[in-house]
Amino acid sequence: MTDTGSSHPHPAPAGCPVHPDAIRLAGLEYQQTPSQLYRALRREHGAVAPVLLDGDIPAWLVLGYSEVTYVTSHDELFARDSRRWNQWENIPDDWPLMPFVGYQPSVLFTEGAEHRRRAGVITEALEGVDQFELARDAQLIAEELIAAFAGSGQAELMTSYAHALPMRVVVQMCGMPTSGDDTRQLVDDLRISLDAAEGDDPVAAYARVGERLRQLVKDKRVAPGPDVTSRMIQHPAGLTDEEIVQDLISVIAAAQQPTANWICNTLRLLLTDERFAVNVSGGRLSVGEALNEVLWLDTPTQNFIGRWAVRDTQLGGRHIKAGDCVVMGLAAANTDPQIWPEAHVGAENAAHLSFSNGEHRCPYPAPLLADVMARTAVETLLERLPDLVLAVEPEELSWRPSIWMRGLTALPVQFTPVVQ
């Protein structure tokens, strides 16, 4: 048995695996003000709370900073292979979270030496991306997107800018065309897979993503180029086509939607917080501070599913059974009062868990590339449209109904029209 040292032990549920005090991770309160729910869960349950996923499937939500760090640092206790889950007999094939937890031969679910091999290929493929060229490409794409709405004096930035920019940058990095119906369908299917709205079919969308990327890998084997996909194909580790497809899905998904939310959440902060709004167009330092503060307070990936207990163990005073699912509460951990006394979150440091932690964290240099995209997007927009303001009251902005991703449904703005 291993313990993180947290106090307030709670007895394990008797008989039924569903804890009697488990909270459903759903509802309007969670969608719009998750920080309040995290505080309530922490008060009632401590650092590890019993929760219910879609279909009332039991899991544990890890709320504490030290506890999330512990889980992500101890792969021998909390591993990534979801086939360990003790709830599979209760999971239907069309379960909405299947794209997150259904085992795939991707880097996300590998462990030990195999994970290091796969992550090494991704790392070296991403290291081949020149950050100065990336910034230049991102700026050119940003200017093209801005030009499309600059003359109108108004825009909805989530769709026309924050989502579109990383999409185009990422597909270009991977060697796909930056526009066209094929690419748009791919990105839309990725969004549905990660952050399905009502009426979406995330399982079918995920299947279509795989089909499109299989074709890309075939094309790049015939005609390689200076892109991430080609470097993965040519790597001496000799990954199979299917391994490359699965790992490309991980790379694109991690780079696109979270970066879009990072951009939009930062723009929201700059446009609604008086600390930044005084001279929003001028200070590059302010943009950097805002980007980092968002990672602490409105991190694009709120919760990450998951880890699975390798054996019975203790975490935060809870008895975790072998095969239990553990959800990493990244947003809750980032605002843990144990690390921020007096409720003051000091956004000046970068010890947040927004890119996770341990061997399975976002591979270097992915966070640096995401920062280049996000910073370029925000700075270019503010430089081109210096009098940018919200077109609605701040309280009218609404968040997407997701417990996993933190992003606005829309960010309407207005500004003085720019004649091209």
The whole-number mean of residue pLDDT values reads: 88
Enumerate the spans where pLDDT stays under 50 for 5 or more consecutive residues.
Answer: 1-16
Major β-sheet annotation: 6 strands, mixed
Strand order of the largest sheet: 1-2-3-9-6-4
Instruction: Tell the overall outline.
Output: globular
Query: How many β-strand runs?
Result: 11
| CATH superfamily placement | Cytochrome P450
Task: Write the topology of this structure.
Elements: E1 23-24, H1 28-32, H2 34-45, E2 48-53, E3 57-62, H3 65-73, E4 78-79, H4 98-101, H5 112-127, H6 131-149, E5 154-156, H7 157-162, H8 164-173, H9 181-194, H10 202-222, H11 228-234, H12 241-272, H13 274-277, H14 284-297, E6 303-309, E7 313-315, E8 318-320, E9 325-329, H15 330-334, H16 366-384, E10 389-390, E11 412-414
Parallel strand pairs: 1-2, 3-9
Antiparallel strand pairs: 2-3, 4-6, 5-11, 6-9, 7-8, 10-11
Organism: Streptomyces cacaoi
Protein name: Cytochrome P450
Pfam families: p450
